[in-house]
C-alpha cells in the first residue's frame, strides 16, 4: 500500500530545532504557554510591518526595504509554531490536512464566494 504524501514535511525542521533548544538548555522554558506567548509576539511583529500600509503597499512589500524584515518574522513564526506543536505532540501535517477537510466542507467551491 502506498503511503499518502505529506502536505508539509516538518521532521527535519523539528530535529534541527530540538538540537538547537537542547544545546542551549532552553527546554525548561519552552512550555506551551511560553511558546504561545512568544508566537503571538512574533505575529505582532509581522503585523507591525503592515500596520499603516495601504492594501496596495502591503501587496508590494516584498519589493521594498521591508523584504528581509518580513522574511525574518515569518521564519520566527514558523519556528515557534513548529516548537509548540512538538511540545504538544501535534502532527502538523495531520492537523493541516484535517483542517483543510473541515474548511472544504464548510466553504464549498460552488457556493457564493466560496461559502463565506
UniProtKB/TrEMBL annotation:
InterPro entries: dCTP_Pyrophosphatase, DCTPP. PANTHER family: DCTP PYROPHOSPHATASE 1. One of its GO terms (molecular function) is nucleoside triphosphate diphosphatase activity. This is NTP pyrophosphatase (Non-canonical NTP hydrolase). It comes from Cupriavidus gilardii J11. Pfam families: MazG-like. CDD domains: NTP-PPase_RS21-C6_like. Keywords: Hydrolase. GO terms for biological process: nucleoside triphosphate catabolic process. SUPFAM superfamilies: all-alpha NTP pyrophosphatases.
Amino acid at each position: 500500500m502506498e503511503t499518502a504524501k505529506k502536505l508539509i514535511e516538518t521532521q527535519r525542521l523539528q530535529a534541527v530545532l530540538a538540537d538547537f533548544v537542547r544545546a542551549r538548555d532552553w527546554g525548561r522554558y519552552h512550555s506551551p504557554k511560553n511558546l504561545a506567548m512568544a508566537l503571538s509576539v512574533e505575529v505582532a511583529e509581522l503585523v507591525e510591518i503592515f500596520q499603516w500600509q495601504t492594501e496596495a503597499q502591503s501587496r508590494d512589500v516584498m519589493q521594498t526595504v521591508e523584504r528581509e524584515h518580513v522574511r525574518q518574522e515569518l521564519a520566527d513564526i514558523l519556528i515557534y509554531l513548529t516548537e509548540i506543536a512538538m511540545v504538544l505532540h501535534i502532527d502538523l501535517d495531520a492537523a493541516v490536512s484535517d483542517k483543510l477537510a473541515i474548511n472544504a466542507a464548510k466553504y464549498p467551491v460552488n457556493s457564493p464566494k466560496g461559502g463565506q
